[in-house]
Specification:
By secondary structure, the protein is α/β, with parallel strands linked by helices. The chain has one domain (about 1-20, about 30-150, about 165-199): 3-Layer(aba) Sandwich (Rossmann fold). It has helices at about 1-5, 10-15, 15-20, 30-40, 60-65, 75-85, 120-130, 165-175, and strands at about 45-50, 65-70, 90, 105-110, 130-140, 145-155, 155-160, 180-185, 190-199. This is SAM-dependent methyltransferase.
Length: about 200
């Protein structure tokens, strides 16, 4: 599991074309994103951690008038973001050690956060805090329960992991975030488990 967890970024880099093709554009997350953007409020800046190729998630807040800063560790995916949405900021970086020296009105960590190993997830709450101010909205996806799963993508192992719900709640509270909404296996969001919180 350890090797697979570290290999996720390079896997996406090697298979950027099939990953981009396979990522649906139907935006089943629209309801959650609308909820998130309402929580962002007046400070219309969003940090998207694990932004992939920018579609369909990062482009939605951008189209809603937000200044988006997208971060991904796969250079080819960031290259696609820069081509598609040149008005936004796109950075090749590892979210686990991100330190931009600024805060945002909202932070998204959907569909990549769940690839991190458990200890890396725990450390991410410090990254969230470092980029949040009072009122910052945070939305991320997780697994429905604690565990590690090894799937496949393009015939290669693809790692996923989750903490349990009680630990997420405790770590959010310790980081100064209040849970606004949380649904496990949301049937209206392709079965995602979604967390929305605000600092």
């Amino acid at each position: 599991m350890d090797d697979a967890g570290e290999a996720v970024a390079s896997l996406y880099e090697r298979h950027v074309h099939p990953f981009d093709r396979s990522r649906g554009r139907s935006l089943l997350e629209r309801g959650w994103l609308d909820h998130f953007l309402a929580a962002v409020g007046g400070e219309r800046s969003v940090l998207d951690l694990g932004c992939g190729a920018g579609e369909p998630l990062a482009c939605y807040p951008a189209a809603s008038g937000c200044a988006v800063t997208g971060v991904d560790s796969a250079p080819s995916l960031i290259g696609r973001c820069r081509t598609r949405f040149p008005a936004q900021q796109w950075l090749v970086a590892d979210m686990r050690c991100l330190a931009l020296g600024r805060t945002f009105g909202g932070i998204l960590a959907c569909d990549r956060f769940f690839h991190l190993q458990p200890d890396d997830k725990r450390a991410m709450f410090g990254v969230f805090t470092a980029h949040a101010r009072k009122g910052t909205a945070l939305m991320f996806t997780s697994g429905p329960a604690r565990g590690e799963v090894l799937g496949t993508f393009e015939g290669e192992p693809l790692y996923h992991a989750s903490l349990d719900g009680a630990e997420y709640e405790a770590r959010l509270a310790a980081a100064g975030f209040r849970v606004l909404d949380h649904v496990v296996d949301d049937p209206f969001c392709s079965g995602h488990t979604v967390w929305l919180a605000a600092r």
